[in-house]
Amino acid sequence: MSAMDVEDFIQQNRALADQVETHRGYWESEKHWDARREFILRNISDFQVEQLDPLLSLSMVWANNVFLGCRYSTELLEKVKEMAEGIVVEDAPVFKTRDEIMKKQQVHVKHTHTHARAHTHTHCAEILTQHVEGNIPNVFLSLPSQGR
After folding, report:
1. Quick one: signal sequence residues (predicted)?
2. Rounded CA Rg of the chain
3. Domain count, the chain
4. Which end of the chain is least crowded, N or C, by CB within 10 Å?
Protein backbone atom coordinates (compact mmCIF):
# COMPACT_ATOMS: atom_id res chain seq x y z
CA MET A 1 0.00 0.00 0.00
CA SER A 2 1.64 3.22 -1.13
CA ALA A 3 0.99 6.64 0.38
CA MET A 4 -1.62 7.22 -2.33
CA ASP A 5 -3.24 3.86 -1.53
CA VAL A 6 -3.39 4.83 2.14
CA GLU A 7 -5.16 8.07 1.27
CA ASP A 8 -7.60 6.17 -0.97
CA PHE A 9 -8.25 3.64 1.82
CA ILE A 10 -8.89 6.47 4.28
CA GLN A 11 -11.37 8.12 1.90
CA GLN A 12 -13.22 4.86 1.30
CA ASN A 13 -13.22 3.75 4.95
CA ARG A 14 -13.77 7.02 6.80
CA ALA A 15 -15.18 5.50 10.02
CA LEU A 16 -12.32 3.04 10.34
CA ALA A 17 -9.77 5.73 9.50
CA ASP A 18 -11.28 7.99 12.17
CA GLN A 19 -11.03 5.16 14.70
CA VAL A 20 -7.37 4.56 13.78
CA GLU A 21 -6.71 8.30 14.07
CA THR A 22 -7.72 8.19 17.75
CA HIS A 23 -4.67 6.03 18.43
CA ARG A 24 -2.17 8.70 17.46
CA GLY A 25 0.10 9.64 20.34
CA TYR A 26 0.41 13.35 21.09
CA TRP A 27 4.21 12.95 20.89
CA GLU A 28 4.14 11.59 17.34
CA SER A 29 5.28 13.90 14.56
CA GLU A 30 3.45 13.86 11.22
CA LYS A 31 6.22 11.76 9.73
CA HIS A 32 6.13 9.29 12.61
CA TRP A 33 2.34 9.06 12.66
CA ASP A 34 1.97 8.77 8.87
CA ALA A 35 4.29 5.75 8.86
CA ARG A 36 2.69 4.11 11.90
CA ARG A 37 -0.83 4.77 10.55
CA GLU A 38 0.19 3.12 7.27
CA PHE A 39 1.48 0.13 9.25
CA ILE A 40 -1.85 -0.12 11.08
CA LEU A 41 -3.97 0.28 7.94
CA ARG A 42 -1.92 -2.27 5.99
CA ASN A 43 -2.47 -4.89 8.69
CA ILE A 44 -5.87 -4.02 10.16
CA SER A 45 -7.69 -6.66 8.11
CA ASP A 46 -5.75 -9.36 9.99
CA PHE A 47 -7.23 -8.23 13.33
CA GLN A 48 -10.74 -7.80 14.71
CA VAL A 49 -11.60 -4.11 14.79
CA GLU A 50 -12.88 -4.45 18.36
CA GLN A 51 -9.52 -5.86 19.48
CA LEU A 52 -6.81 -3.69 17.96
CA ASP A 53 -4.45 -3.71 20.96
CA PRO A 54 -2.09 -6.36 19.53
CA LEU A 55 -1.88 -4.48 16.22
CA LEU A 56 -1.34 -1.15 17.98
CA SER A 57 1.41 -2.72 20.08
CA LEU A 58 3.12 -4.14 17.01
CA SER A 59 2.85 -0.77 15.27
CA MET A 60 4.58 0.88 18.24
CA VAL A 61 7.33 -1.75 18.23
CA TRP A 62 7.93 -1.11 14.54
CA ALA A 63 7.83 2.69 14.88
CA ASN A 64 10.08 2.65 17.97
CA ASN A 65 12.60 0.51 16.12
CA VAL A 66 12.56 2.68 12.99
CA PHE A 67 12.43 6.13 14.58
CA LEU A 68 14.07 5.64 17.98
CA GLY A 69 16.37 2.69 17.43
CA CYS A 70 14.75 0.57 20.16
CA ARG A 71 15.80 -3.06 20.12
CA TYR A 72 13.56 -6.07 20.55
CA SER A 73 13.86 -9.83 20.18
CA THR A 74 14.86 -11.09 16.75
CA GLU A 75 11.54 -12.92 16.31
CA LEU A 76 9.49 -9.82 17.11
CA LEU A 77 11.53 -7.59 14.80
CA GLU A 78 11.22 -10.11 11.97
CA LYS A 79 7.44 -10.18 12.45
CA VAL A 80 7.00 -6.38 12.41
CA LYS A 81 9.42 -5.93 9.51
CA GLU A 82 7.42 -8.46 7.53
CA MET A 83 4.20 -6.62 8.43
CA ALA A 84 5.80 -3.30 7.37
CA GLU A 85 7.17 -4.58 4.08
CA GLY A 86 6.77 -1.90 1.43
CA ILE A 87 6.37 1.03 3.83
CA VAL A 88 8.85 3.70 2.81
CA VAL A 89 10.12 6.01 5.53
CA GLU A 90 12.16 8.80 4.00
CA ASP A 91 15.12 10.11 5.98
CA ALA A 92 14.73 7.50 8.69
CA PRO A 93 17.49 7.80 11.27
CA VAL A 94 20.26 5.21 11.18
CA PHE A 95 21.20 3.71 14.52
CA LYS A 96 24.30 1.75 15.45
CA THR A 97 24.62 -0.69 18.30
CA ARG A 98 27.25 -0.26 20.97
CA ASP A 99 29.10 -3.25 19.49
CA GLU A 100 29.18 -1.62 16.03
CA ILE A 101 30.52 1.63 17.50
CA MET A 102 33.17 -0.19 19.57
CA LYS A 103 34.27 -2.25 16.56
CA LYS A 104 34.64 0.90 14.46
CA GLN A 105 36.65 2.58 17.23
CA GLN A 106 38.92 -0.47 17.53
CA VAL A 107 39.56 -0.45 13.79
CA HIS A 108 40.26 3.30 13.94
CA VAL A 109 42.67 2.89 16.89
CA LYS A 110 44.43 -0.01 15.16
CA HIS A 111 44.71 2.02 11.93
CA THR A 112 46.00 5.06 13.84
CA HIS A 113 48.54 2.91 15.72
CA THR A 114 49.71 1.22 12.50
CA HIS A 115 49.95 4.59 10.76
CA ALA A 116 51.93 6.07 13.69
CA ARG A 117 54.34 3.10 13.72
CA ALA A 118 54.84 3.34 9.96
CA HIS A 119 55.49 7.07 10.29
CA THR A 120 57.98 6.48 13.13
CA HIS A 121 59.83 3.80 11.13
CA THR A 122 59.97 6.09 8.11
CA HIS A 123 61.23 8.97 10.24
CA CYS A 124 63.92 6.78 11.86
CA ALA A 125 65.02 5.51 8.45
CA GLU A 126 65.37 9.10 7.24
CA ILE A 127 67.50 10.02 10.28
CA LEU A 128 69.76 6.98 9.80
CA THR A 129 70.14 7.76 6.12
CA GLN A 130 71.10 11.34 6.91
CA HIS A 131 73.59 10.11 9.58
CA VAL A 132 75.21 7.68 7.17
CA GLU A 133 75.52 10.48 4.65
CA GLY A 134 77.17 12.60 7.37
CA ASN A 135 74.38 15.14 7.75
CA ILE A 136 73.62 14.41 11.45
CA PRO A 137 76.27 14.37 14.21
CA ASN A 138 76.77 11.16 16.25
CA VAL A 139 75.45 12.82 19.40
CA PHE A 140 71.85 12.39 18.19
CA LEU A 141 72.30 8.66 17.66
CA SER A 142 74.24 7.68 20.77
CA LEU A 143 72.53 5.39 23.24
CA PRO A 144 73.17 5.53 26.98
CA SER A 145 75.50 2.79 28.15
CA GLN A 146 74.28 0.29 30.71
CA GLY A 147 77.05 1.13 33.19
CA ARG A 148 76.13 4.78 33.72
Report:
1. none
2. 31
3. 2
4. C
Instruction: Give this prediction's pTM.
Output: 0.60
**Which residues have C-beta within 8 Å of that of residue 130, sequence separation ≥ 6?**
136
Sequence-ordered strand ranges (E) for 65-115: none
Where b means 16+ CB within 10 Å and e means fewer, 120-136 reads eeeeeeeeeeeeeeeee
Is 145 a domain residue? no
Judged on CB neighbours under 10 Å (0-12, 13-18, 19+), 33 is middle
Please tell me whether residues 78 and 105 are part of one structural domain.
no
For residues 76 and 114, membership in a common domain is answered with no
Tell me the per-residue pLDDT of 45-58, one tens digit each, with 9 for 90 and over: 899 878 899 999 99
Residue 148 lies in a domain: no
- CA 36-101-84 angle, 5° bins: 20
Note whether 68 and 135 are same-domain residues: no
